[in-house]
Amino acid sequence: MSFTITTVYADGRIETRDATAEEVAQREADEIAFEAERIAREAAEAQAAAAKASAIAKLEALGLTADEVSAAFGFQVT
Amino acid sequence: MTNGLVVMTPSSIAYSGTSASINADGSVDFSAVTSLSLNGVFTADYDNYMVAIRGNQNTAATIYCRLRVSGTDNTTTSSYVSQYLYVSSTTVQSGRNTDDKARLFAISDATSKYGGDVAYFFGPYLSQPTAFRSVTADASGPSIVEYASTHNQSTSYDGATFYVPGGVTYSGKITVFGFNQ
């Protein structure tokens, strides 16, 4: 990975340089962390959605209506 | 000087991406950047600051922030803790991240990818831990994303870097104000 960094000064001067090895390493570490976080978040969201669907199904099996489930537990049954 | 907000014109900005510029009024316009650093916006003149930002991204994503001094970001492991609250229609989510960066803004709407944010920085120039507080509103939806963050390093910072990883680019305008009191 390589990228450039452009610096603009308040007096109008502009300088462009290649990112340093440290800046490249930090960018790469940030990308790896971002991807790991995205995977974990999507897994957690899928797990939460499955748990919600399961809970709704069990409540409806007990005889609650969708309106009653929404009123009692605060989420929309779709 | 009258009490109120004072525009903090950056002494310089640094970016990676398509373009960015410092306007005569002290605001900064940026187009398709992946990172944008504002230098010299925190000074000994004021303790607390407000950052107003509006813009759009090429995809919905969180904007991260690191404090910086003399052109170098602070990336101390686990030094930033961000608590978030996300509300969209009847869905409410929350969570906490301990990281080498703060979560500051988020555009969560995948359709419009447009939003506005206000963030407060408490004591970034002081040699003591810094606190942040921010609220994002998506232009479509709408949804609300709030962050409360802390950074535990007792360092005096003169600027901040905002960045979005994952191939996301961000365009818009950002202005830093000091609280004159």
Strand and helix layout:
The complex is a heterodimer of chains A (78) and B (181).
Chain A: E1 4-9, E2 14-18, H1 21-61, H2 66-73
Antiparallel strand pairs in A: 1-2
Chain B: E1 4-7, E2 12-22, E3 28-39, E4 48-57, E5 61-69, E6 72-73, E7 80-88, E8 91-99, E9 102-107, E10 114-122, E11 130-138, E12 143-151, E13 159-163, E14 170-180
Antiparallel strand pairs in B: 1-14, 2-3, 3-13, 3-14, 4-10, 4-14, 5-6, 5-9, 5-13, 7-8, 7-12, 10-11, 11-12
Write structural notes for this entry.
The complex is a heterodimer of chains A (78) and B (181). Chain A is an alpha+beta fold and 78 residues long. Chain A has one domain (4-73). Chain A has helices at residues 21-61, 66-73; strands spanning 4-9, 14-18. In chain A, strands 1-2 form a two-stranded antiparallel sheet. Chain B has 181 residues and is an all-beta fold. Chain B has one domain. In chain B, 0% of the residues lie in helices and 64% in strands. Chain B contains no helices and 14 strands. In chain B, strands 1, 2, 3, 4, 5, 6, 7, 8, 9, 10, 11, 12, 13 and 14 form a 14-stranded antiparallel beta sheet that branches. Chains A and B meet through strand 1 and helix 1 of A and strand 2 of B.
Keywords:
heterodimer, A: 78 residues, alpha+beta, two-stranded antiparallel ribbon, 2 strands, B: 181 residues, mainly beta, 14-stranded antiparallel beta sheet, globular
What is this entry, summarized?
The complex is a heterodimer of chains A (78) and B (181). Chain A is an alpha+beta fold and 78 residues long. Chain A has helices at 21-61, 66-73; strands at 4-9, 14-18.
Number of domains of chain B: 1
**Major pleated sheet of chain B:** 14 strands, antiparallel
Counting DSSP H or I runs of 4 or more residues, the number of helices of chain B is: 0
Please state the average pLDDT score of chain A.
Answer: 90
Rounded to the nearest angstrom, the distance between the terminal CA atoms of chain B is 9 Å
Main beta-sheet annotation of chain A: 2 strands, antiparallel
What kind of assembly state do the chains in view correspond to? heterodimer
**What share of the residues of chain B does DSSP label as strand, in percent?**
over 45%
Largest interface: A-B, 20 and 23 residues
Question: How many helical elements of chain A?
Answer: 2
Structural class of chain A: alpha+beta
Distance between the termini of chain A: 45 Å
Uncertain residue segments of chain A: none
Backbone structural class of chain B: mainly beta
Q: How do the helices and strands follow one another from N- to C-terminus of chain A?
A: EEHH
Placed side by side, the strands forming the largest sheet of chain A appear as: 1-2
Q: How many runs of DSSP E, i.e. beta strands of chain B?
A: 14
